[in-house]
Design a protein that fits this description.
The complex is a heterodimer.
Chain A lengths: L6 E2 L2 E7 L3 H18 L4 H4 L8 E7 L2 E10 L4 E8 L8 H15 L4 E6 L4 H5 L4 E2 L12 E6 L14 H7 L11
Antiparallel strand pairs in A: 1-2, 2-3, 3-4, 4-5, 6-8, 7-8
Chain B lengths: L11 E5 L3 H18 L4 H4 L8 E7 L2 E11 L2 E9 L9 H14 L4 E7 L3 H6 L3 E2 L5 E3 L2 E9 L13 H4 L11 H5 L18
Parallel strand pairs in B: 4-5
Antiparallel strand pairs in B: 1-2, 2-3, 3-4, 5-8, 6-8, 7-8
Classes of the chains: A alpha+beta, B alpha+beta.
């Protein structure tokens, strides 16, 4: 089932959409800690110029921001990316909670398809949450990625991928994307 | 801009963070090092003092590489939140960065720089003219600290209330250079303002 709630040491993890400057800064801080601090991604790749045209989701344990996810909106799909959970809070499905929040948000906006690109070693994390590989082809380059899709409506999970209107667009949409930090 | 291969010596730039982007860069580097590497909780790292401080940024070939926060007390400048991103360590950036901060404070007229040094860095601070000024180490955010201070070579003519007002208007890390407000003087003084409105009661 979808991860609709999770708790750490008996305390529930909350999610919310970043709506204030401070929330956005918290999302950036979590990503900076995970991607720049832990994974050594250069600043200019992590903060790629797309942050101010996107929606940022946050996970909190009490007041502490412990996870973040960026969602970008396209005509035929929503793109969750930059999924990050602070190292010491991993293993509690916080990443799944954020992805489910993104799915619900996309659903509320009438969006049909979720699409993302992750590094090949992280595809299994998404596949375990019923994302499917869009194609076998990996983007070339130093940091290969694979495309993954998921219907927003869980009832349509078995629909033909070819029917999904995201297909044409998303295969053209080759993005260099830093890996997720959720394992 | 991605970091270039080290075929030539990197270009290092230090400046006062003066735009939202530069402030964000500073916060991101601190989050990377303190939250990402040292497990510091968010609310301890972003402690409420960021919007009453000056932030210094160091760039290597245009890429944000190091950051430091300076707060201004009466008689001394407090250097804090100083970090270098992992990939830029061992390049000898720390000493020139701290020296830049010291001379920045000195040019503003501060006779003393003060800092809380993590215990493992004490020797480095002592080599940079800081001396330990408290006997008892103290600790916060999981680290042991000592309080250090260094005397600064104050500029011959530090800013004072008698300094040319247009010099005090300049960007704080460029007090020796003509600023944008001096250029505005060419427009003259037309004293534009909206008309007085009636004072509204309720």
């Amino acid at each position: 089932m979808e991860t609709r709630s999770c708790s750490i040491d008996g305390e529930f993890v909350n999610t919310r959409i970043a709506g204030r400057m401070e929330d956005t800064l918290q999302a950036f801080a979590v990503r900076a800690a995970c991607f720049i601090g832990e994974q050594d991604v250069p600043y200019s790749e992590e903060f790629d110029g797309q942050d101010f045209g996107a929606t940022h989701l946050l996970a909190y344990l009490g007041n502490e921001p412990i996870g973040a996810l960026r969602v970008r909106w396209f005509q035929s799909f929503a793109m969750p990316e930059r999924l990050a959970v602070m190292q010491r809070f991993r293993g509690h499905k916080v990443g799944q909670l954020l992805l489910e929040r993104a799915r619900a948000l996309a659903e509320s906006r009438g969006c049909n398809i979720l699409y993302t690109r992750v590094s090949p070693d992280q595809a299994i994390y998404f596949e375990n949450q019923r994302w499917r590989r869009l194609d076998d082809g990996q983007t070339p380059g130093a940091r290969p990625t694979v495309a993954l899709v998921r219907p927003v409506d869980p009832a349509k999970e078995n629909a033909e991928i070819a029917d999904m209107d995201a297909f044409a667009l998303s295969t053209q949409y080759r993005l260099e994307m830093p890996a997720a930090a959720v394992a | 801009m991605t970091p270039q291969t080290p075929t030539q010596s990197p270009v290092v730039t230090i400046k006062l963070a003066s735009t939202s982007d530069e402030l964000l860069q500073s916060y991101a580097l601190r989050a990377a090092v303190f939250m990402g590497e040292q497990q510091c909780p968010y609310w301890e790292e972003f402690d409420g003092n960021d919007y009453s401080a000056s932030h210094l940024m160091l760039y290597v070939d245009g890429e944000p590489a190091a950051s430091m926060r300076v707060r201004w007390f009466s008689g001394f400048a407090k250097l804090e939140r100083a970090i270098i991103l992992k990939r830029y360590r061992s390049m000898g950036l720390f000493v020139p960065f701290v020296e830049w901060a010291k001379s920045f404070a000195a040019q503003k007229g501060y006779p003393k720089a003060y800092l809380h040094g993590q215990k493992r860095l004490w020797e480095i601070f002592e080599r940079q003219g800081f001396r330990k000024i408290n006997d008892q180490p103290f600790h916060f955010s999981d680290h042991e600290y000592g309080a250090f201070a260094a005397e600064l070579d104050v500029a011959d003519d530090p800013p004072s209330v008698l300094t040319d007002p247009m010099v005090l208007n300049r960007p704080e890390d460029q007090l020796d250079r003509r600023g944008i407000l001096e250029e505005s003087m060419e427009r003259g003084a037309s004293n534009p303002h909206a008309e007085w409105t009636e004072r509204r009661i309720n």
